[in-house]
Design a protein that fits this description.
The chain is of the alpha/beta class and 299 residues long. The protein contains ten helices and 13 strands. The relative contact order is 0.12.
């Protein structure tokens, strides 16, 4: 069919262009809004939740605008949540039927924070060994094929990083940790995400150096700040400097335990920290357990 010159022109008037621009911007906004993700931290007691409860919970989560679920880990210490008969496989199946994309978390040793916080001389080798176990875990999950290709968003490394963990006391130990991280990302084709936690004592210079370095390794980097993302903080300076290259995790719980005591928290129904962010930022919330309507037990 012959096309006239008039037909070839994409817009015949300013009004048509304005209309096109309006719908394009709406589409862009929706695309970013739908990228919102929520964490799910599997615990053994979650096996008590019925299929119907899971289905209802995930449907409500989808209605709120979340489009991705980050399964924080598939193995914690000796507990393998993908073993035969595990409830997590059913949860993943339900999530896929609800059209969620899924980040599959790997392995976290149950003494990880204890070892890394104490900053012992052997912590660098410990970290390297834990990363090797994560690589092995990744290979096993690929064989199991827990998530279909079109529902798979990427891998999540549950070994949350801080400046203290990366700094180390010696240059050799720092190089061991950074080398192990580089080796891991270079051996994996799919996307791999990791979170970076900003402690109160982390300076902007240190955090910017760390996050830039991790970004350069190929990680999808997600920034987490325990006391929120208030204005004029290191967190907001980082977000502004890195723009769309960094995701941001907001916590929707209020911690009620002391730092040296076993963790305990309550639900926080009003979590608006992420509303201040640009729409280009990937926005994540921790976690599914603390949603007001969630049937998952807290403590």
């Amino acid at each position: 069919m012959k096309i006239s010159k008039e037909q070839k022109r994409p817009f015949s008037s300013k009004s048509q262009f304005s209309k096109w621009l309006f719908f394009w911007l709406i589409g862009l906004y929706c695309q970013n809004a739908f990228s919102n993700a929520i964490f799910y931290q599997p615990l053994s007691r979650d096996s008590l939740i019925t299929k119907e409860q899971w289905s209802d919970l995930l449907e409500k989560v989808y209605e709120e605008g979340y489009r991705e679920i980050v399964v924080q880990w598939t193995q914690y210490g000796s507990i393998n949540f993908t073993a035969k008969g595990s409830f997590l496989k059913e949860v993943l199946h339900i999530a896929q039927t609800k059209k969620f994309r899924i980040w599959l978390g790997l392995y976290l040793p149950d003494d990880y924070y204890q070892v890394m916080e104490n900053n012992k001389a052997a912590s660098a080798q410990y970290f390297k060994s834990a990363l090797s176990e994560n690589r092995r875990r990744l290979s096993l999950l690929e064989i199991q094929s827990l998530v279909k290709k079109d529902s798979f968003a990427g891998w999540y490394l549950p070994m949350e990083l801080t400046h203290k963990y990366l700094k180390q006391d010696s240059k050799q130990d720092r190089e061991i940790i950074l080398g192990a991280l580089k080796d891991l990302t270079s051996s994996v084709e799919e996307k791999m995400a990791i979170s970076y936690f900003l402690s109160k004592n982390t300076t902007y210079k240190s955090a910017f150096f760390d996050t830039t370095l991790l970004n350069s390794m190929g990680f999808n980097l997600w920034l987490q700040k325990g006391d929120g993302l208030k204005k004029h903080t290191v967190a907001n300076q980082l977000i502004k400097r890195m723009d769309c290259e960094i995701g941001v995790i907001s916590e929707n719980f209020i911690q009620i335990s002391n730092n040296n005591a076993p963790f305990e928290a309550r639900k926080n129904s009003e979590n608006k920290d992420l509303d201040r962010l640009k729409h280009c930022q990937k926005r994540l919330v921790f976690s599914l357990r603390y949603l007001p309507y969630s049937p998952l037990q807290l403590n």
